[in-house]
Fold each of these.
Amino acid sequence: MTEPMATRRWRPGDRREKRAQMIRVDQAGEYGATRIYAGQLAVMGERGAHAAEIAGMAQQEERHRDYFDAMMVRERVRPTLLQPFWNVAGFALGAATATIGPEAAMACTAAVETEIDRHYQQQLDMMGDGDSELRETVARFRDEELEHRDIALASGAEQAPAYALMSGMIRLGCRIAIEASKRI
């Protein structure tokens, strides 16, 4: 006999778990993006090529992260246990690509934002017409991430050394980070 919905206890796979998973992974991604940009700016400085664009994108990522931080507190969603790793890995990725040069820093942005677009679109497809607050926020943030990708491409991302290889590796890393942050 099944329990009435109002008295049924939570079970793995419930809608609440899926929403928490979305919030957790989106916060982790936005946190990682802030760390990538911090690493790039640490190497490039404030006056380096594309530093103004990177600083502007970093501010938007901070706003995105602040939103998901607040949502996590409000909805009692635990952060990923991988957050300390994303702190170091994100900064290192940003610093490494900036060390290669401004085009490589932009190639990193283009690759990351391409995967974030894919990830956010999958979430939007999964939500359908439900969950209007989260859906509207994800859609707005996705649009801003696409702007970042377009800025990066217009700023010479594809002229980075070994662009195709670098982009593919960064995109694969993003996909792995997304899946890991959902679960851990």
Note: Confidence is low (pLDDT under 50) at residues 1-13.
Amino acid sequence: MKAPPLRRRLACLIYEGLMLLGIALVTSAVSLGLLRLLGLEQGTNLHRLALQAMEFIVLTGYGAGFWSGGRQTLPMKVWKIAVVAKSGAPLGVGRALWRAILAWLWVLPALLAAAALHLSPSSTAWLVAAGLLLWAAASQLRPDHQFLHDGLAGTRLIQDSI
């Protein structure tokens, strides 16, 4: 089955980004409260690492949880996009988790470059946006037009008929 058009996948990605932003903000608020209760001094490397680890776990779990067992995130339902294994079967928890981890490739290179170059938040945002566009455009170079992380995870996006 053919991949949904790139413009529809990008519209879904924008909607998904808004959902993830909300989840990340709630996760940050809860995590900061927990870290404060634990007495972890704010501004330390350990504090930052703990906060980043909690964000990674929650955001990765969001994707894996919704993609496993044939489920979809709300933006995927709205844009009629489903993620399946290459065989067309629903994703198991392991494959969904692997896809969620590989999905970090959308932003991780830009975040690492921004950290190495000590970029400002606004410059980091521009670098992440450029990375997202390059990642999406790279899908058009693949014969199946799937994103690289889907190829690596053994998954594919399809048009959902629901």
Note: The two ends are 15 Å apart (CA to CA).
